């Protein structure tokens, strides 16, 4: 085996859907963290709840790591139609989640302050 042969054909190209998935995941994490910190939401995922209870930084790190690792695996197999579909589907799902977060934020702002 020649040096560097394992990287032959490797590409760092990221599709627009991959970039969208990463950005939307980050937005989801930040919105979730904001709502948790404000005490207006609770994390239902037991793994992520434990991470948040340990540290908000661990929560964000875990959230980003899990999605990024999954996306890396899908990108490694991006020649497969199923991988490309999964990336696009993930971006759509996260877009819906971010729209939900924005609607929830608008609701919170329209009812601020909570105690009044």
TrEMBL record:
The chain crosses the membrane at residues 12-36, 56-76, 85-109. It holds the Pfam family DUF5658. Keywords: Membrane, Transmembrane, Transmembrane helix. Residues 19-105 form the DUF5658 domain. The keyword Membrane applies. This is DUF5658 domain-containing protein. It comes from Corallococcus llansteffanensis.
